[in-house]
Amino acid sequence: MLTKRLGIDPLAGELPASLETGHVRIDRDHRQLLALLGELRRICRDPGGLPDCATCSADQQLACEGRLIVLLGDLFSCILEHFAGEELLMRDAQMQLAEGEHYAAHIEDHAAIAQKVQELVARLDIVHTVERIRELDGLLARWVANHIEMHDDLLVRWLAKRGIPGAAV
Fold first, then answer.
1. 3-state DSSP call for residue 23?
2. Contact yes or no for 122/130 (Cβ under 8 A)
3. Which of 76, 90, 70 lies closest to 25, judged by CA?
4. Which of 109, 139, 156, 169 is the most core-located residue (most Cβ within 10 A)?
5. Could you give the CA distance from residue 119 to residue 124 in angstroms, rounded to a whole number?
6. 4 in a domain, yes or no?
7. What is d(CA 60, CA 159) in angstroms, rounded to the nearest whole number?
8. From CA 147, how far away is CA 53, in angstroms rounded?
9. Which residues, 6+ apart, have CB-to-CB distance to 76 below 8 Å?
10. CA 71 to CA 129: how far, in whole Å?
11. Cα separation, 60 vs 16, whole angstroms
12. What is the enclosing helix (H) or strand (E) of 74?
């Protein structure tokens, strides 16, 4: 799956060093997101090999779909809490005043990924659960790597320059 090509192995339970920001809370949230990606990959017995769920029994299809729905709830909770925390950090540090473009782009990126996940959820279908798993895995793996590089690293450096607790020095 794409996550391995990006150097992200959610099954390992580790945040790759290349994705560590140095901010305790942000990195903890990223680890939690990667743990959810690991759970996502364990829903199906062969997420990389099955074209769809048609060869699985009806009971297995229901079980996988049910596990995916529960995980999506956990995922939304995780990302929305993470986004709220980052946005509060930025507001408290008054980043919008000094770095308005970066602040706006960061918030827009949060909204865009939440929208993409919602669009994927709207396409849930019991026979295509494994396809949604692959799509979600790829979407989130690409997003987390790009988001950290483009937004979170900048945020953490900005916070550290201002002596905000939790930021790398």
1. coil
2. no
3. 90
4. 156
5. 9
6. no
7. 47
8. 31
9. 114, 117
10. 12
11. 33
12. helix 58-92
CA distance 19 to 22: 9
Tell me the two tokens of residue 11.
């099954």
Question: Rounded to an integer, what distance in angstroms lies between the CA atom of residue 76 and that of residue 118?
Answer: 9
Domain count, the chain: 1
User: What's the pTM value of the predicted model, to 2 decimals?
Assistant: 0.84
Q: Is 30 a member of any domain?
A: yes
Q: Does the pLDDT value for residue 1 go beyond 80?
A: no
Which range (3-12, 79-88, 101-110) has the least confidence? 3-12
* pLDDT band for position 74 (cuts 50, 70, 90): very high
Q: Assess contact for 148 and 82: CB atoms under 8 A.
A: no
Residues in the chain: 169
Say if 2 falls within a structural domain. Answer: no
Q: Establish if 169 belongs to a structural domain.
A: no
Count the helix, strand and coil residues of the chain and give each as a percent rounded to the nearest 5. Answer: 75, 0, 25
148 secondary structure, DSSP code: I
